[in-house]
Write a sequence for this structure.
């Protein structure tokens, strides 16, 4: 008998097949038992008839949720739903029992579910989210690979606590302190000089004490960086990137997004070009909406929601005051108080998903910025080399994967966007 | 004038184009200067004629290695080499100087080059290696994505120092100790129960004090895990995986491998199926080669070289004594002293590139193994849950990317296989 997986059942209609998996759920009448069986590729309803398969019926009555099993049967089209298949069971074997499986169909508290994350990922909803996550990661890599970017993995261990240690995780690296990376950007600037177009994609770390629905201690970030690219093209790259990734995931993961009851009509609007407003336009927009905002303020989550609500797709806010941004941002030649930076704010209150801009490529200006920010020049010596030897205009951005997963899936909290979340109060399982 | 990159020159033969990049090298005669210009996508020879472009000739004479520049010219086919293109320069502008670029064409010591890694990656050889690395990573992901594996990122922070702290990096995770992952495998076993076929691919960490040509403190590992798969299929998956990845990279990166003077005829032999020998066969093979080997010995680098030299492609060694392997390996039902494990040894002395096997799926046997290895049962409670609730046969393996890069590129040391290596004595740049 052919061994198949549930995702492939459509190719075996009318044939006898064998499946292995776990019991997701069951219900029974006097003569029939309906088993929902999952094998990781999908869930199928297996119908066990007392008259047609009395032994299997007897076995099925003893099965409990999440036992593993092997089942044989004939594949049939669902009588009502097109594209759905069922199994008419002929034989059934329990492989391993599962008494008192902790996650029952009833409601559990978040902490309980997070404590059982290793089992919780078996459930239909978590399964769908993580399948969307995979599709997003693949779409991100394919986008950059398709545009001839070279993947250049940034290091995780970094030698200097350049911007203060308060949000850094520290470790003893064979006798010297090392810090876990918060961003691969500085390394990608070196990579852009070597490869023209480069990106890194890996885990990054923040030791922030804040406990919000948007923060993880460990999260994945993709950071492209391009030589001879300036701010205008950077914004264009960001909007093409984001819209291509969103549209591809909407196409490839429609079943999962439906399962998550996501309104994909909102996602389908994410098409380039995105509206662009300057930081000062954004401040004016906040004032128009009754907020007490003034130039020099950074945007909080509520501000971002107000700004993004004015548009039907992501909005790019550019040219923030330099004082709000990192030392490496290039000043706007038109107004030196501003940075050549940009943030992309997602709709529906999901806030900043992309942050980036053009980097300072003038050696003297960068040295002055280091001094101004009271940063140790010695630690940045290698980074300054990129301006000493054939400096070049360049720009890039960073996107945090988990916020994008939350937005595309429509989740209120990032904790479900990564298989095994690490947060202020969560290091297990 | 059309702005192009060097990789795309073939589409503009006879046309005037503009390039931006860096000066890689130059040589001159009285009337001609030959500039090797790189832009990250490739290197092109730009010819500057004193008669045809006197201003550009004058500018070119002042250029030094690794200055950034903009150059215009007409694309021509190389008079002798098919598929090679040149630029007949019409105009040339230096964008930013590079005086005394530290890496000259003369030989430098390894430490010097590693100290200048941020610049060294611009050189032709390092560029080629990292392009091969990217192709390998892409081929790995495409292999698993193409077989419907779900990517399930394993956590980097792990709560327990389960197998001793001597090779673990530790950090303070908001008041509790956390350790940087050495393997995502245990998490992939949970993922296999949720997704059937799962893999993780991310950085892993070893704090080993050893300083060898095969070890990095930070390296990338891919770890697939499959539900209802046993050892025989695991070996088959490993050989299909490795041969597909190697053959694809040989096809896609032939220019880079030629640049590295790699004998690809040896790589082309890497075709499934691979020979399989048992551990005891391997011991016999060592004895036949004059080594003083006996059952119970683990293999050193020299042993692996002797074993692999007996074959023209990678060899799979299976069923090692259980005492040599981790607690989670399933015992061989035919001989309980053995593990259902396997290693794939690469040819040419590159040693173990894959290690894996079938996992213990019996709850009582796994609990006994924990006790035998003096491991804290409490820390493994979640892992034991996978046997408590619907246990299932499963197997998988791990492959370290940097060893594969070293082998495919033919490098004696792993330090050049990753953009910014971290080793016992190396945390910068």
């Amino acid at each position: 008998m052919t061994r198949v997986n549930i995702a492939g059942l459509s190719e075996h209609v009318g044939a006898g097949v064998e499946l292995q998996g776990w019991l997701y759920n069951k219900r029974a009448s006097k003569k029939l038992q309906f088993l929902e069986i999952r094998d990781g590729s999908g869930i199928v309803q297996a119908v066990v008839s007392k008259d047609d398969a009395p032994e299997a019926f007897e076995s099925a009555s003893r099965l409990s949720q999440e036992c593993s099993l092997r089942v044989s049967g004939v594949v049939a089209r669902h009588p009502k739903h097109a594209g759905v298949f069922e199994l008419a069971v002929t034989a059934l074997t329990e492989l391993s029992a599962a008494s008192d499986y902790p996650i029952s169909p009833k409601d559990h508290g978040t902490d309980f579910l997070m404590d059982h994350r290793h089992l919780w990922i078996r459930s239909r909803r978590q399964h769908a989210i993580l399948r969307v996550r995979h599709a997003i990661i693949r779409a991100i890599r394919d986008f950059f690979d398709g545009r001839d970017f070279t993947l250049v993995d940034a290091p995780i261990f970094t030698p200097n606590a350049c911007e203060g240690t308060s949000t850094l995780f520290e470790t003893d690296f064979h006798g010297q302190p090392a810090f876990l990376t918060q961003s691969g950007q500085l390394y990608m600037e070196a990579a852009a000089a070597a490869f023209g177009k480069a990106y890194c994609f890996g885990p990054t770390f923040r030791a922030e004490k804040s406990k919000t629905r948007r923060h993880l201690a460990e999260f994945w970030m993709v950071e492209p960086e391009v030589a001879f690219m300036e701010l205008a093209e950077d914004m264009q790259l960001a909007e093409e990137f984001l819209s291509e990734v969103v549209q591809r995931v909407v196409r490839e993961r429609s079943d999962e997004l439906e399962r998550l009851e996501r309104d994909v009509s909102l996602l389908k609007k994410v098409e380039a070009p995105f509206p662009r407003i300057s930081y000062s336009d954004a401040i004016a927009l906040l004032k128009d909406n009754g907020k007490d905002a003034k130039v020099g303020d950074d945007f909080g989550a509520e501000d971002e929601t107000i700004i993004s609500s004015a548009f039907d797709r992501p909005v790019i806010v550019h040219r923030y005051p330099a004082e709000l941004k990192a030392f490496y941002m290039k000043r706007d030649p038109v107004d030196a108080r501003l940075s050549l930076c940009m943030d992309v704010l997602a709709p529906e209150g999901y806030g900043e998903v992309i942050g980036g801009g053009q980097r300072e490529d003038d050696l003297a200006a960068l040295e002055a910025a280091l001094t101004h920010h009271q940063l140790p020049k010695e630690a940045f010596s290698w980074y300054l080399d990129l301006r000493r030897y054939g400096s070049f205009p360049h720009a890039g951005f960073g996107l945090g994967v988990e916020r994008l997963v939350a937005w595309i899936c429509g989740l209120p909290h990032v904790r479900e966007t990564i298989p095994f979340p690490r947060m202020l109060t969560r290091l297990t399982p």
In short: The longest strand of chain A covers residues 16-28. The domain at 117-416 of chain A is CATH 3.30.930.10 (BirA Bifunctional Protein; domain 2). DSSP finds 13 helices and 19 strands in chain A. Residues 115 and 429 of chain A are 6 Å apart (CA to CA).
